[in-house]
Amino acid sequence: MMTLPDTYSPEEKVELERQFNELLQCWKSRKNEQDVAMVTEAYLLAANAHKDARRRSGEPYMYHPLAVATIIAGEMGMGRTSIICALLHDVVEDTEYTLDDMRQRFGDKVAEIVDGVTKLTKEDFDEQTARSMQAETFRKVIMSMSYDIRVILVKLADRLHNMRTLSSMPHHKQLKIASETTQIYAPLAYRLGLYKIKVELDDLCLKYINPQVFESVQRQLAEVRERKIKELEEFMAPVKADLEKMGVKVRTQAIERNVSAVWERMAKFGQSLEEVYDTYVARIIIDCPNVEDEKLRCWETFAIFTKYYYPDNKKMRDWVSFPKTNGYASIHAVFMSNSGNWVETQIRTERMDEIAENGFAAYWKYRDQNSNAESGLDLWMKVVRNLVQQADENHVSAIEFIDNFKLDLFNDEIFVFTPKGDKITLPKGSTVLDFAYNIHTDLGNRCVGANINKKLSPIDTELKMGDQVEVITSEYQEPQEKWFDYLATSSAKSRLKNGIKDFRKEFKEKGKAMLREYFERAKIDFSKQNRNTLAEKFNLATRNDLYYFVATRKIGQQDVENCLKGSDAHWSDYLMKYLTFGFVRPSSRKSDEKADENSVSGYVISTCCNPIPGDDVVAIQLPGQPMQIHHPDCPEAQKLMSRYGENIVKARMQFGDEFAFLATLKVLAVNKMGFGATLFDIITNQEKLDMQAMEMKIEGGMVVATVSVYVNNLKTLENLIDKIRKLELVKKVERVGKRS
């Protein structure tokens, strides 16, 4: 039996033993002496394997796998195999031990899971074809997860501990890891029902991506906490008393939303913390031993609330009748309290609460083992497997795979019904066309519209919760490229892609004959190379696509001659426009630039968030492209950093006053004649700023003004905002395009 090596100090050995005993104590799932012995063996092997490794903080590296295993056992409620994998998850990646060693000592399943969470290295793939090592690693994790859910659970526990200890990392690493977490791992935790882990990841991400906002919201929550909790307790008191009179055991909780969720609502609706009605949530949990009575008891509780308060039916969400695929079930309702405030209220049973808080482990604990029906998690995993299979069949890149995964599996879900009353689960944002392709490929290919709740609707109509959909088809309809814009699910896009491919094959012979004639007239050799060149110049994937466009006369004689006999410069310019359009605006300001310690030439100021000097910024240098300057909390920046974390460049914006940057403000004010002139005077005469545009809309008794001005730096913009806020009619001023 191994012992702890002497590379650890006596104090560190004591701490390791303490942490291991803590792991055993929080391991609540079934275990026997053999289970404990195998976990102990894994602990000692990992401690010896990592004996010379230290974390950036100077602590023994072994503290990390012990912490990950403790999260797996205590916070996720998993058992022996998962705990062993958590202890060993970095052994193969960082030490001389191999997967065969893991297999011989702990079995095939442990080896498979450890392999699934092991990061890829540069030696694992061709860097010419793999654009992002992060994306390739994530694809490997998801493919492994599709066969064993424990792969992603270990990965999530690993990520959670890394986020908890991120303060010791340099800033660019913090941004890389936090962006990757907010883009991929936090949504995954949510989809698996691991709500506690999800909200902690969200808060930690905000803390490192936008620390000023995190601290500000945290401070504001602390200021109102005591008052808000007291209000909620008074709000729930009469309902609790009535339930107890009925002999129902009940618990009440005043829940404070996490910092990230509160900030998301503030940014989305342009509200202050006091204006966000669901910053605090009233949760009432009833004891209902009989699962079959749960719906009835929840609705009885809802009825008691209506005895005291008026509900807002538009904000009603019934997750009791339609549980989410991760098992989440609860009634969400909003009531007007006696103090004149809307109160977000959640009604659930003890079983529902355990599933909501602990997700995967609790879901399986309460699963009906005698039922042949597939659970929501089974169905979700089936979608994951289908996505992996489609990716293999279509040879999609790792980055495209991640986009598809997020598209199909990270969005909230809706339930819609077929004409026969069958329930179909789709991601929120799905359209009639998504629904048609979900039923059958041919139904999607021939879809011309649908009756939604007996009302005729076009194919791009977005579906809503509870809609009943009857697809209308025509034998004359054909799948079209523009339909990609109407789809919200990757599975539908894949089926549309195959439908277009099959349809275009029918034009192969006709198009090929016409193209041969074009070549002969132009005296160009009808070689495979020339045809491939033509397809490439028109940005077509295959020669069959080329034949289709020729057969349908979308490519003609003159197009062929211009392409194959014309100047390459024309096509090069076209492709550059295609690549840069709608992404970032190239800047002409190149002097006085200090993007990092070394002067970097060639950059673009991103128009998605419009940073200006004085803002916190991040620079991302992608091969063959100008460096992109973003706000760290910009969604586009987070997406890029989650894929190209190694390309983050330390940056700051320091430009001379002769350079101006576009900033946009949204002003909400009481509508009164002359307000526009006053606003114009402040900007142009008092502050002497150039205005690019001003748009004003009247909404009832209010006016909404959107103003775009050129400023030299953040201080200039803040002075303008401060002056506008002091106007008597103004109720709110916010900067558009930046979330802080």
Offer a few descriptive terms:
740 residues; alpha+beta; Hypothetical protein af1432; Beta Polymerase, domain 2; Ubiquitin-like (UB roll); 6 domains; 6-stranded mixed β-sheet; 5-stranded mixed β-sheet; 29 helices; 20 strands
CATH superfamily caption of the largest domain = Hypothetical protein af1432
Number of helices: 29
Unreliable runs, pLDDT <50, ≥5 residues? Answer: 125-130, 567-601
Our measurement of the CA-to-CA distance between the termini, rounded to an integer number of angstroms, reads: 56 Å
Top-tier CATH class of the largest domain: Mainly Alpha
Largest sheet descriptor: 6 strands, mixed
Compute the number of structural domains.
Answer: 6
Q: Judging by the overall fold, what is the CATH architecture of the largest domain?
A: Orthogonal Bundle
Structural class: alpha+beta
What overall form do the CA principal axes indicate? Answer: globular
Measured on Cα atoms, how large is the radius of gyration? 30 Å
Describe the structure.
By secondary structure, the chain is α+β, with helices and mostly antiparallel strands. The chain has 6 domains: 10-209, Hypothetical protein af1432 (Orthogonal Bundle); 214-365, 2-Layer Sandwich (Beta Polymerase, domain 2), CATH 3.30.460.10; 411-504, Beta-grasp domain (Ubiquitin-like (UB roll)); 506-580, no CATH class; 585-649, no CATH class; 661-736, Alpha-Beta Plaits (2-Layer Sandwich), CATH 3.30.70.260. Helix content is 50%, strand content 14%. The chain contains 29 helices and 20 strands. Strands 1, 2, 3, 4, 5 and 6 form a 6-stranded mixed beta sheet that branches. Strands 12-13-15-14-16 form a 5-stranded mixed beta sheet, with helices on one face. Strands 18-19-17-20 form a 4-stranded antiparallel beta sheet, covered by helices on one side. Helix 2 runs parallel beside helix 4 and helix 8 crosses helix 18 (398-409). The longest helix is centred in the first third of the chain and has 35 residues, at 211-245. The relative contact order is 0.06. The model is unreliable at 125-130 and 567-601 (pLDDT under 50).
